[in-house]
């Protein structure tokens, strides 16, 4: 089936082409891998990634600060409400007594007075029942206490102040505990584990206790009039300090130097301060019309907790984030070298050689010398096809050796692209060239004129390559900032699309059937070429 | 004794359209015969040869070489056939030596003695770069590449183009030697004289049709010969004209006559002429060229009528008619 003399003749006629293309391609590949391996292209990518991680952390930090600030004020607000509620209780006791007098015409005494006291006390107990948990007080005790205080109030109006002071003593135990257990329930409902929820409860408890104690201290002082503004600044200061402390302690426990821990903790404090100040600013802005709805509060919080990634437009943020996640090595070695740059020279070799093996010799007439010997046409075409595949195979065998050595030099399996991936790249590129060689061979076998063989075989091959270049700008390996999805259409026009390097890099097994298609295209076109060459007229 | 037929072409037709191609070509080449093939450019010589070589598939008719089908049994036939193609283009190899060695390998030829003798006889320098060879050198290389295998059948498509006159002589000598060895040779050419020198029979092909197959021996030894005689005076001229010789051309202004006479009665002519004063007497030799020209002229006269059936453009037909008319008129004038 194979004629040795003809095979030798083809080797002699084409070895210069083969050698120059092989050397050039191998050199390009070695340079690409080694230079990329030493440049650390992924540094930029990593720093971009850092920016976004930091931004995310910052957002969490800011949210924590704002939440803590809110919690502080809620605790203060709660304490205030309880104190005000007790004042209102005495007022409603007075009112109930007056009503009784108007209705019966005589002041309430004895059993009637007790009934009123009990009614009011029951109302209060039902209101505060939830807070008793953890205080060591039962609702019966509370009810008895209130009844006793109301009775004392009948004889001495100073009892009101005394009772308020008494309740204030219990506030640091009652209210924070309630808020903390609510926070725990909330955390559990949000899907936190029992441990995390308990940690949250402890934090909130500490924060709320500070806030309530703060309230009690402030409400007894002459500055109580300016309470709102005062509590707000206290809350900010306290939260900032808390942030600082927790970061500082954490860092020290991790063995960081004191100075450095101080710097880091201060940075966190600054971020916390900024977040809370922004939050306060937006709350004042929204409450200019006299009221602050929940929606407005939420808006203020969003504004205050914005990180860098929230401040830039969404599309840009997505693009930058993708850029951070992009696999630069996969793109340059896989999509650009193996699918485009590295294929170009072998393509030129295959187009020229396939043409000169049959069509070129028929066109010039030199095929006559072979066919005027007792050599079958089938033998001629099979020999020439064998030479073409042999040249291509040896070229890619060398390329594989070079690529494996280059990857080994830049770090073996620690390199961004490991050995199995680089081997699959070489196999894919070879199979792509096999399909193209089959097609060019078929054109060379079908046509008697060089110009037809070259323009169909070579033309479509180069067309494929150009489509792959254009299609690259629409494919998923290009970050969305540079991607034009419509350009992906070109990928459907190119046979190189069946050599999908992203499949190999992402570990998908789709490359298996795609390689199968490339192999089938090569085999079918070669068979068509061989049979056509047997049957056609030759102008020799 | 019936001669063995080596190449047999029967009703071979290959129509390329527009009147081009070959139509109903029939001839055969006997063993040991040199068969010539003559015709203008594009008349179909090469197409016929390509069919014999099995490069083209016949549309109609069949081509047999040594009783084997030229298309189906091509590789087997080529064990007996050497071929010099009309268009000389070599494989992409460095020099003549590499090419000849490669060709010898393809032919399965081990002994290069004959090749070397051919090379020295043709004064070929095979070490020259194939691409830089002159047309003649390429032709010589092609001839050596074909002849070195020393096979029984030789097919040569215009083998002398590009050769200088001396080399042409040498080449024709080689052909005659091959003929002596008993080889069968089919050779196409545009040169009548070289065909006349080497061939036994010559076929004339025109517009893809074989017009005539001439036997060279009969042509060179015809039954009738033409003699042109000029007399010194008019009396002798007039007196001679009254004799019963067949005059084919009469030129009274020069006192010249051309007569046709059977070779057997030549003695009679010379006896008669003894009594006349002659300025000169010369034999008008019949050669291949003249023979075919006569046939062509006759054929073309007929063709004016039949040209309608040919698939030619109006302009081509008009031009052809014009040239034919001129030729016809010129011929008439000559007769006068």
How are the secondary structure elements laid out?
The complex is a heterodimer of chains A (540) and B (336).
Chain A: H1 4-39, H2 42-104, H3 110-128, H4 139-155, H5 159-189, H6 194-220, H7 227-253, H8 258-286, H9 294-304, H10 308-311, H11 314-325, H12 328-357, H13 359-364, H14 367-371, H15 377-409, H16 419-446, H17 450-472, H18 501-506, H19 511-535
Chain B: E1 5-17, E2 20-30, E3 34-38, H1 45-52, E4 60-65, E5 68-69, H2 74-77, E6 81-84, H3 96-107, H4 113-121, H5 135-147, E7 153-157, H6 165-180, E8 184-189, H7 192-198, E9 201-206, E10 209-215, H8 216-220, E11 224-231, H9 234-242, E12 246-251, E13 256-262, H10 266-273, E14 278-284, H11 288-306, H12 314-335
Parallel strand pairs in B: 3-8, 3-9, 6-7, 7-8
Antiparallel strand pairs in B: 1-2, 1-4, 4-5, 9-10, 11-13, 11-14, 12-13
Model description:
The complex is a heterodimer of chains A (540) and B (336). The longest helix of chain A has 63 residues. Helices cover 80% and strands 0% of the residues of chain A. Chain A has 19 helices and no strands. Chain A folds into two domains: 244 residues, no CATH class; 274 residues, no CATH class. With 540 residues, chain A is mainly alpha-helical. The radius of gyration of chain A is 42 Å and the shape is rod-shaped. The model of chain A has no long low-confidence stretch (mean pLDDT 85). Chain B folds into three domains: 212 residues, Rossmann fold (3-Layer(aba) Sandwich); 62 residues, 2-Layer Sandwich (Alpha-Beta Plaits), CATH 3.30.70.80; 48 residues, no CATH class. In chain B, 39% of the residues lie in helices and 28% in strands. Chain B has a six-stranded mixed beta sheet with strand order 6-7-8-3-9-10, sandwiched between helices. Chain B has a four-stranded antiparallel beta sheet with strand order 2-1-4-5. In chain B, strand 4 and strand 5 form a beta hairpin. Chain B is elongated. Chain B starts with a strand and ends with a helix. About 3% of the residues of chain B have low confidence. Chains A and B meet through helix 1 and helix 14 of A and helix 2, strand 6 and helix 3 of B.
């Amino acid at each position: 089936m194979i004629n040795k003399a003809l095979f030798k003749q083809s080797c002699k006629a084409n070895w210069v082409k083969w050698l120059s293309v092989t050397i050039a391609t191998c050199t390009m590949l070695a340079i690409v891998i080694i230079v990329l391996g030493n440049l650390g292209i992924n540094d930029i990518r990593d720093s971009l990634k850092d920016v976004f991680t930091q931004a995310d952390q910052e957002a969490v930090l800011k949210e924590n600060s704002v939440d803590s600030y809110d919690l502080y004020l809620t605790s203060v607000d709660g304490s205030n409400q309880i104190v005000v509620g007790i004042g209102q209780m005495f007022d409603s006791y007075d009112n109930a007594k007056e009503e009784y007098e108007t209705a019966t015409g005589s002041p309430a005494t004895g059993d009637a007075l007790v009934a009123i006291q009990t009614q009011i006390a029951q109302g209060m107990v039902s209101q505060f029942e939830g807070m008793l948990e953890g205080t060591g007080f039962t609702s019966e005790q509370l009810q008895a206490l209130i009844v006793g205080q109301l009775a004392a109030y009948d004889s001495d109006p100073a009892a009101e102040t005394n009772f308020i002071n008494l309740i204030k003593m219990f506030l640091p135990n009652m209210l924070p505990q309630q808020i903390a257990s609510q926070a725990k329930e909330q955390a559990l409902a949000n899907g936190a584990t029992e441990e995390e929820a308990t940690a949250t409860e402890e934090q909130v408890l500490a924060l709320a206790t500070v806030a309530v104690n703060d309230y009690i201290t402030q409400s007894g002082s002459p500055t109580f009039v300016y309470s709102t503004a005062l509590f707000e600044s206290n809350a900010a200061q306290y939260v900032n300090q808390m942030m600082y402390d927790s970061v500082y302690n954490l860092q020290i426990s991790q063995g960081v130097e004191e100075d450095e821990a101080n710097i880091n903790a201060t940075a966190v404090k600054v971020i916390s301060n900024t977040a809370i100040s922004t939050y306060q600013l937006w709350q004042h802005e929204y409450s200019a019309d006299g009221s602050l709805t929940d929606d407005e509060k939420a808006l203020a919080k969003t504004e205050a907790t914005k990180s860098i990634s929230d401040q830039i437009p969404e599309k840009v943020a997505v693009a930058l984030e993708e850029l951070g996640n992009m696999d630069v090595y996969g793109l340059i070695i896989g999509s650009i070298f193996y699918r485009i740059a590295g294929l170009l020279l072998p393509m030129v070799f295959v187009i020229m050689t396939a043409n000169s093996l049959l069509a070129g010799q028929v066109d010039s007439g030199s095929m006559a010398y072979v066919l005027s010997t007792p050599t079958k046409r089938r033998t001629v075409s099979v020999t020439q096809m064998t030479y073409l595949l042999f040249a291509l195979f040896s070229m890619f065998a060398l390329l594989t050796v070079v690529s494996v050595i280059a990857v080994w030099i830049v770090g073996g399996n620690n390199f961004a692209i490991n050995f199995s991936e680089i081997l699959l790249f070489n196999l894919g590129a070879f199979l792509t060239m096999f399909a193209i060689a089959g097609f060019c061979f078929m054109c060379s076998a079908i046509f008697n004129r060089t110009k037809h063989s070259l323009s169909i075989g070579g033309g479509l091959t180069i067309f494929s390559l150009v489509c792959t270049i254009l299609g690259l700008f629409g494919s998923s390996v290009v970050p969305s900032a540079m991607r034009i999805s419509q350009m992906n259409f070109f990928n459907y026009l190119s046979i190189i699309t069946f050599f999908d390097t992203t499949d190999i890099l992402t570990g998908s097994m789709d490359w298996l059937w795609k390689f199968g298609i490339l192999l089938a295209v090569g085999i079918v076109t070669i068979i068509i070429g061989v049979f056509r060459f047997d049957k056609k007229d030759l102008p020799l | 004794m019936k001669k063995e037929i080596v190449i047999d072409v029967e009703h071979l037709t290959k129509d390329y359209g527009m009147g081009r191609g070959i139509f109903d070509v029939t001839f055969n080449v006997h063993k040991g015969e040199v068969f010539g093939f003559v015709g203008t450019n594009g008349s179909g010589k090469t197409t016929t040869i390509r069919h014999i070589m099995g490069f083209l598939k016949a549309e109609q008719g069949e081509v047999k070489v040594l009783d084997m089908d030229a298309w189906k049994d091509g590789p087997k036939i080529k064990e007996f056939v050497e071929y010099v193609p009309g268009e000389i283009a070599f494989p992409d190899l460095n020099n003549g030596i590499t090419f000849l060695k490669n060709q010898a390998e393809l032919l399965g030829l081990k002994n290069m003695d004959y090749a070397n003798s051919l090379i020295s006889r043709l004064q070929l320098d095979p070490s020259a770069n194939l691409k830089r060879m002159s047309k003649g050198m390429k032709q010589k290389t092609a001839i050596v590449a074909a002849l070195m295998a020393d096979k029984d059948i030789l097919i040569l498509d215009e083998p002398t183009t590009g050769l200088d006159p001396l080399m042409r002589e040498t080449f024709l000598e080689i052909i005659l030697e091959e003929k002596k060895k008993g080889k069968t040779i089919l050779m196409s050419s545009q040169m009548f004289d070289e065909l006349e020198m080497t061939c036994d029979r010559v076929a004339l092909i025109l517009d893809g049709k074989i017009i005539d197959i001439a036997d060279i021996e009969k042509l060179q030894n015809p039954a009738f010969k033409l003699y042109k005689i000029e007399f010194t005076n008019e009396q002798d001229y007039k007196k001679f004209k009254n004799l019963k010789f067949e005059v084919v051309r009469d030129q009274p202004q020069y006192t010249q006559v051309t007569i046709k006479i059977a070779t057997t009665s030549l003695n009679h002519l010379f006896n008669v002429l003894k009594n006349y004063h002659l300025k000169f007497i010369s034999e008008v030799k019949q050669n291949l060229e003249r023979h075919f020209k006569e046939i062509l002229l006759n054929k073309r006269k007929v063709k004016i009528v039949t040209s309608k059936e040919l698939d030619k453009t109006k302009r081509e037909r008009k031009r052809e008619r014009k040239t034919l008319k001129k030729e016809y008129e010129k011929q008439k004038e000559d007769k006068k």
